[in-house]
Each structure stands twice: as C-alpha cells, then as structure tokens.
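BUG: 3D viewer hangs when loading the predicted structure for this chain

Environment: internal workstation, default settings.
Expected: structure renders.
Actual: progress bar stalls at 90%.

Input used:
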Amino acid sequence: MINNENMRFIELSFAFVLDLAIGDPQWSYHPVRLIGRSIEGMESLLRKLPIPVRISGILLTMTIVSGTYLSIYALLSLSKQWSILGEIIIGAVIIYFAISVKSLSDESKKVMTALKEHDLIKARKALSLIVGRDTANLGEEQIVRACIETVAEGSVDGVLSPLFYAFAGGPTAAMAYKAVNTLDSMVGHKDEKYIRFGWASARLDDLANYIPARISAILIPMASFLCGYGFRDSLRIACRDGRKHDSPNSGIPEAAIAGALGIQIGGPSTYQGEIVEKPCIGDAQNPLTTKSIEAATRIMYVTSILFIAFGIGAILCLKYWFF
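Structure tokens produced before the viewer hung:
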C-alpha cells in the first residue's frame, strides 16, 4: 500500500530525474504557458472594468492562483479514479513542469559557449532570453555578471521554491506557486503601467519565496563546499549582503554564490533604456569569467539535490518522531 508520504517521495524523485533528463519542454500547451496566456486574457478583461487599478490587480492574482490550484486538483482527482499509478504519474509530471533545473543550466551554457567563441552578439542574444535587462550593449564581464545573477535567483524561484511547495502541498501547491511566480514576472513590474496593477502579484511572490530564499542561505554554502568552494565565505556574504537587494529574497542566493566564488555582482543595469543602480554584492577577489558561470551552475545543481535529500530526511524524521 502506497501512503501519501511515499507517493510524495516517488512523485518528487521522478519529477526531478525527468527534469534532469529532458529539461523544460518548449511546448505551447506547457502549463506555465497556459497560465501566461490566462494572465494576458484576464488582464485585458480587468483593465476594461470601471474599478480601481489596484483592485483589478488583486482580482487577477486571486483568480489566476486559485484557478490554477483548482484545475490541478481536479486533474489529480480524475487521475486518482483511474489508478494510483495514474495519480503518481500525473502528479510527477505536474511537479516536473514546475521546476527548471536543467533548463536554467542549458540557457546559461548557451551564454557561456558564445562567450568562449568570442561571439558577443550571440552571447547577448542568448542572455536576453533569460534576463529582463537590456543586453544590446553589454560587454563580456557584464554578460557574465547578469548570467550569474540569473542562475543565483533562479536557484530559488525556479528550483527551491517549487520543490518546497511540492514537499509542503504536493503538485497542486507546486503549480500554484508557479502561477504566483509567472504573475510576478508578467505584471509585477515597477513601471508606470504595472506599479499598481501588479502590486498584489509582486507582494505575493515576495511572500511565497521568503522561506525558500532563506533556506538557500544554508544550502548554497553547503553546496559550495561540496563543489570545492568556500562554505564560510558563502555564508558570510549571504548574511552581509543578502539584504542589499531591492527584493527581500533575490539578494540572498546572489550573495551566497558571490561569496562562494569570491566575485562581485550587482551594480548598474539598464532596463528599457533607463539605468538602474543596484548595490554591489560580494567582494571582487576573482574576475568574472565563463568559469564563474560554470561554477554557479554546478552549485545550483548540488543545491537542488541537497534540498531534496534534506526534505525527504526531514519528513521521515517527523513521521518517526511524532507518528
């Protein structure tokens, strides 16, 4: 007999292996893309209503997140009527769609390969697919910096957070989190168009990532040590510089990786032609090179494995001690 805990372990393990083997499929019916299209349609509808913009944004957030949760719940309920194996397979596939370990690594490798070929145009184009900043005029060091920042931030919102919610609430919670994260990426901007409309989405994303980001402050230093980098420096810089970022969460994994590699990230970036000053994170002990991207990606992989190992261990311990 497979109980809920065992089912959760099987789903998570299968989903993680599936992601490492295949990566994120470029499929038009990918659940996250369906969520994105739903956001676009709902935004267009809500902006036509004679209600305050901020209220419209709150309604968008509530509708998309609850709609995603209920849709996945209904799908899992149907699969459960089919068989326990069907429920496990569907659940694992849903979690697989929610995480993006290999995809993040693959996109970073495209940037790294282009830089190794001394093709800045190709590197800028590859980088533009994974960052929101302007990339047209970036030099090699700026490209490396942006790529590392993306890997670091993605280690939380693309890996640890969906895994955290998969552990906590299964496939429904994992995909509901992806809805929150997708809302933030689409409407959670600080420009004139979205500063009020995207307020609820941005705040909910901050809240959803709060615990996973702080877990990363421990796991990234541990992963750094296992990868041959400094545990102490990673933890020290995470504590020192993790709060410098405008986001309450993004600065923590960025600082932890910067400390491990002895590099400095942050600084000015350009968004839609406007320069945005960001605080510098880390100490510039080592240069920013393609090896830095490779190291950051390796740390991200090990961090995700540690999270799964500790997550399973924690649930087993709680079950043994209290049940």
